[in-house]
C-alpha cells in the first residue's frame, strides 16, 4: 500500500511540474505566456543622424518554459523628436543575434498602425520556446535630430486571443556628425 501511495505522489508531482511550463489560459480563452520573453538588446548599425541604410536590431530571448510559442512582436516608437518611418518590406527576422545569425524566420506579415506608429511582426510558423531571435527593422533613414529614441517592445503568444506582454524599451541614441561616442564622426561604433 505504501509503494502505491509513493508512486501516486511522484506521478502527481510530475504532472504539476509538466503543467507549470504550460501557457496560462483564462476561461474566456485568452492565452498568456507562462514565462514571457525577454528583450535582450536594441542596437542600430549607424548612429549618425540622417544616415541611410541603417538597421535597427531588437534581440529577444524566448525561455524554454514560455509555455507557448511566440506569434507576434509589436514595436512602438515612444519618444524622440521625430517620428521614424520604416521600409516594412525590408523587415527581417532570424534565430540568433546580430553577430551570430543562424536560420531566417518566416514572416506572415509586417504591418504598421498609423495611429499608434506600432509595427507588428507576425511569425509563420510561431517561434518555439528556447530560442533567441533578432528582428531587423530598416528605417527610410535615421532621424534628422539627435537624441535618445525609445521603442516599446511587446510579445504575443500563439493563439486567437492572446495577451501581449510588454518586454521593455529598446533605447537607440543618434548623434550629429562628429558628435558620436568618443568623437567618432558619422556615428561609428
Describe this structure in words.
The protein has 189 residues and is mostly beta strands. The chain has a single domain, classed as Immunoglobulin-like (Sandwich). The chain contains 1 helix and 12 strands. Strands 3-4-10-6-7 form a 5-stranded antiparallel beta sheet, with no helix packed on it. Strand 11 and strand 12 form a beta hairpin. It is elongated. The N and C termini lie far apart (69 Å).
Write the layout of secondary structure elements.
Layout: H1 2-19, E1 24-25, E2 31-32, E3 38-44, E4 56-62, E5 70-77, E6 92-97, E7 100-104, E8 107-113, E9 118-127, E10 131-137, E11 147-157, E12 165-174
Antiparallel strand pairs: 1-2, 3-4, 4-10, 5-9, 5-11, 6-7, 6-10, 8-9, 11-12
In short:
This protein is mainly β.
CATH class: Mainly Beta
State the low-pLDDT regions, or none. 6-21, 182-189
Please report the distance between the alpha carbons of the first and last residues: 69 Å
Strand ordering within the main sheet = 3-4-10-6-7
- Helices, by number, come to 1
For the secondary structure, the number of strands is: 12
Q: Could you state the order of secondary-structure elements as H and E?
A: HEEEEEEEEEEEE
Mean pLDDT: 86
Overall SS class: mainly beta
- Kindly identify the CATH topology: Immunoglobulin-like
Strand content: 35-45%
Q: What is the level-2 CATH architecture name?
A: Sandwich
* Radius of gyration, whole Å: 20 Å
Biggest beta-sheet profile: 5 strands, antiparallel
Number of structurally distinct domains: 1
- Tell me roughly what share of residues is in helical segments: under 10%
Shape annotation: elongated
Amino acid at each position: 500500500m505504501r509503494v502505491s501511495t509513493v508512486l501516486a505522489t511522484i506521478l502527481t508531482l510530475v504532472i504539476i511540474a509538466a503543467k507549470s511550463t504550460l501557457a496560462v489560459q483564462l476561461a474566456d480563452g485568452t492565452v498568456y505566456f507562462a514565462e514571457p520573453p525577454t528583450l535582450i538588446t536594441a542596437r542600430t548599425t549607424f548612429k549618425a543622424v540622417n544616415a541611410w541604410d541603417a538597421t535597427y536590431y531588437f534581440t529577444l530571448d524566448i525561455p524554454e518554459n514560455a509555455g507557448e510559442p511566440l506569434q507576434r512582436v509589436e514595436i512602438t516608437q515612444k519618444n524622440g523628436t521625430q517620428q521614424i518611418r520604416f521600409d516594412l518590406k525590408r523587415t527581417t527576422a532570424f534565430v540568433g543575434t546580430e553577430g551570430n545569425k543562424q536560420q531566417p524566420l518566416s514572416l506572415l506579415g509586417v504591418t504598421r498602425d498609423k495611429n499608434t506608429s506600432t509595427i507588428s511582426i507576425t511569425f509563420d510558423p510561431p517561434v518555439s520556446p528556447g530560442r533567441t531571435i533578432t528582428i531587423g527593422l530598416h528605417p527610410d533613414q535615421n532621424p534628422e535630430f539627435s537624441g535618445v529614441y525609445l521603442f516599446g517592445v511587446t510579445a504575443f503568444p500563439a493563439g486567437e486571443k492572446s495577451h501581449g506582454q510588454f518586454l521593455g524599451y529598446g533605447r537607440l541614441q543618434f548623434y550629429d556628425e562628429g558628435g558620436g561616442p568618443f568623437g567618432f564622426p558619422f556615428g561609428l561604433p
